[in-house]
Amino acid sequence: MNALRSFNGVERAAVLMMLVGEEEAAAILQKLDPDEVRELGRAMYDVADVSEAEVEQVLDDFTYKARERNGVSFNPAPKIEGMMNRALGPERASSVLARITPPAAAAGLEVLQWYEPAEIAKMVEEEHPQIAAVLLAQLDPEIAGQVFEHLPDAVQPQILRRIAKLGPVPPEAIDTLRDMIERRSSTGTARPAGLQFGGTREAAKILQGARKTTEARVMPKLAKIDKEVAKAIEEAMFVFDNLLEMDDKNLSTLIRSIDGDVLTRALKGVEEDVRERFLGCMSSRAADGIRDEMEARGPMKLAEVLDAQKVMIAIARGLIKDGTVTMPGKGGDDDYV
Question: Whole-model pTM?
Fold first, then answer.
């Protein structure tokens, strides 16, 4: 009889996650932060071959009434993907899954965790921009931003554009990336399936991980290459919810710059606490007027609300750019703390 493995806390939790229903598992994942989701997701793949005896061992630690349960020796991918999609939504789930999928499906990129950002940049600086884009999209945005910093200025706009336009990546591209890494690190080989990498939000996160001076230098160049992609990245870097990060003084300044009709439509589709955050930065008379106007208008199309919010965001970006208002994370590199 083979000795039972000794599981750590995360692995025991992973075994239990594989036993509960998909809906219950998704509810649990929603309460975890991103790092915990990734750690637990990796552990679920690691314990996929757990034996029935080991399952019972884990259940004995957590509950006194579960010995009739079966083992979970099966392909874990569908269940893990299902619960991740339920918990995080398709786009965020795709990003998380791309980073936790075992090496056989993720091109062995886990070896990159042992490299400094400058070393990773050195690996891809002479490769085709598409290869660099796929690699950066696989990294955590904070690390990817640091790698991006070390890439030659001339290729940064092209690479950022390709990250924003990435979709399902063909196996041939993954093979090329894997072969490039193998030449430098001697990792194992396994043909991956096409994975969903990148996208506008991923490109935006990577740029946010870089310095503000890099953003200021790269975005105008990217706009000359592809104005549409540059605009999409800019919009993804600053969304309506970011306005709530302003303090009351700056938010009041912004509100005074917004037309009353735009403000009414923009606040019509937000949660009550968010709406009150904005109205609380206005005079009582002005706030009551906005409330009355929203009530008088009745139901409003979502498209109208989103268009008005985009107008507010554009005005906010302009005010931040000219220094009229400030907000955390939107100042220059020489901000004082």
Answer: 0.40
